[in-house]
Amino acid sequence: MENKFDMKQGLTQIEVEERKKQGLQNDYEENVAKSTKDIIYDNVMTLFNFLNFAIAICLFFVGAYSNLAFLAIILVNMGMGIYQEIHARNLVQKLSIVAKESVHVIREGKEVEIDTKELVVDDIVLISAGEQVPSDMEVIEGKSEANEALLTGESDLIEKTEGDVLLSGSFLASGQVYARVIHVGADNYAVKITAEAKVHKPIQSELVNSIRKVSKFTSLVIIPIGIILFLEGFMIRDSGMKASVVASAAALLGMLPKGLVLLISIALTTGVVKLAKKRILVQDMYSIETLAHVDTLCLDKTGTITEGKMKVQKVKVMHANYHENFPQIIGSYLAESTDNNITMQAIRDHFDLSNRYGAIKTLPFSSERKWGAVEFKELGTVYLGAPEKLVTADQLPNEVVEAQENGYRVLMLAIAENTPLDEKSMPHLEPLAVLEIDDPIRQNANETLAYLREEGIDLKVISGDNPVTVSNIARRAGLFGYESYIDLSTMETEEEVRQAVHEYTVFGRVTPQQKRTIVRELKDNDHVVAMTGDGVNDVLALREADCSIAMAEGDGATRQISNLVLLDSDFTTLPDVLFEGRRVVNNVTKVASIFFIKTIYSFILSMICVFTTVAFPFIPIQITLIDLAIEGYPAFFLSFEGDKRRVNGKFLPTALKNASVNAVLVVANVVAVYLIGANQAFTQIETTTLMYYLLIGISCMAVIRACLPFNPLRIFLAITTVGGIYVAAMLFHSILEVGFLNGQTLPIFAVMMLINIIVRIIIGLFQMKRAGKTIKDL
């Protein structure tokens, strides 16, 4: 084949340029990354922004200019959201260059490497095992097995020979072919499907879904409540246009947790940036959140626990008749074989190529069969593959068993003398030689596996290798439960595989379909599963996992479909990945209760005002100060703290439950002050001032609770938040339309705050006791 293709010219440079001018170039790109225009549009044109700007317009037309200060928060939210998203996009694009794909083509009689975008119609392309097909092609010579699961959903490998079509988006699982490009760009059969497969599968975000639920609820109630409150003020209380709009606007603004969406985005983007600094490419921002809930991690052996840098350690020739000419036999096999996985690379590095024996027919190695073969004129057929797949158990040499027990990867060379190659049936084989291949355990693998287990992550090792070998490698890596292993090649049904998932830790001789079944069974039993992989045979399982993690040194297929890529191919960074997810979710959950306090009490007070026709007690500028000083300032800094604790409970119920106590206290205090003020004949400014100062105090209690247990940063945040907002309220009292606490209102404030603190502490202690927590668990 080599000689034949030396004579092939492929396209000339002139022909290439002509096709490019005709638009027959594979430069079509469905850019999955947002454009700057789309990012700006998505951050501006939201339901939250629409409602806030609608309220702002109403305030502007009635001349309530001071109450438009909340627009600053909206604009900052939009600006930061746009900046963070553009920054994250640019970072991902920059790092993605590491995984950029190229392809080998024949042009003007030479094999050259070009970017896949440079392909044109009629280009002759050389594609090998492990590579993704970049464009629709017709095989013109060679033989391979293609995995089209990402296109058709069918997981069986499909044999491709001369005249067959290779679809863009499929992957070669074995073999090597020369193929002619027949479609490019948008004309490719699977442009849309491959775009999805190359980047990531959609991930459901609990945080985003929770915000959508709140948005949907507020959008349903905010408009009718706003209209009712305005009509009551304007027509029943005769408050005038301006006062009616200001009062109803304050009620509506309070129900919108303006900063929470931004906080989630910042927390996730911070995670992307942190992981990028540790050489971890995040291709889906929300996969960081998914990682927080992972309780089961499926590890591939080769390239994950081990370094993936295989080396032939020992060769034992078993057949006396071929002892002298063994180097020529293995050299001829390597010269004729198109296999080029990491195991074959190690063998090629160890032996010299030879042209001593001419090949009649070749069969590439397949991860399904676990062997490949070459038929030679003078010898018969030589097979290379897993020993137990080539000979019966009683024929296995002792050297094979010993090597496997020591954790080495073992391949056998076997021969069927004077026997033609038959793909459908295997003749009786005589062991020719045993190859011991070592793949060193990654540095710090023991500590990493032990640490993950201590943190509640259940570990399972899945490999296509012999289970004894895999088990002993797991033992050397310090995996708990390494002795619990099984050979899945003995399993005939999916039900058997699913049952084995619950009984074993190490799985050997696993097919790509069985890997996917293992992940599915774990997910069906309510586990959140992350999977690492580096080969084409991991693609199906990686797609199935809740979070897929690929090694950059692995096949392009795994990199392109994974949520995260370890750019240094070092699985010992996995704790950083898993715990970054926990940090994001735990911190957002903790501070979200501060944001939801205002949403809850604004809704309750609005309903009370609707039924009593009393004006809403606060105005927009007062709510804005709460947004800035109590919600934005401490929550922003708290969201950056490290938090490796396991995630417990659901985000929205937890956040609403934590916020509800303080929200109810606010409502109770407002009602109490209203009644006291009416009884004591307080002026309007005295009543409003007392209500607002109590609102600040109760909101600060939520900040202090979020800061528990204290550390220097949290003490600083608590003190500056409490002191800062009261100082701001006094400095800007005229703008806020409040006064100062006087001899009448100060004692009432002190007593009511003391009662609030005692009630909150009692309820908090009761909640902790009921949940079995201590203050350290906050």
TrEMBL record:
It holds the Pfam family Hydrolase. InterPro entries: ATPase_P-typ_cyto_dom_N, ATPase_P-typ_P_site, ATPase_P-typ_TM_dom_sf, ATPase_P-typ_transduc_dom_A_sf, ATPase_P-type_domA, HAD-like_sf, HAD_sf, P_typ_ATPase. Keywords: Membrane, Translocase, Transmembrane, Transmembrane helix. Signal peptide: none annotated. CDD domains: P-type_ATPase. Its main location: membrane. It is found in: Membrane. The keyword Magnesium does not apply. Residues 99-196 form the P-type ATPase A domain. GO terms for molecular function: ATP binding; ATP hydrolysis activity. One of its GO terms (cellular component) is membrane. It is a multi-pass membrane protein. The chain crosses the membrane at residues 217-236, 256-276, 591-613, 619-638, 659-678, 690-708, 715-736, 748-766. This is ATPase. It comes from Enterococcus quebecensis.
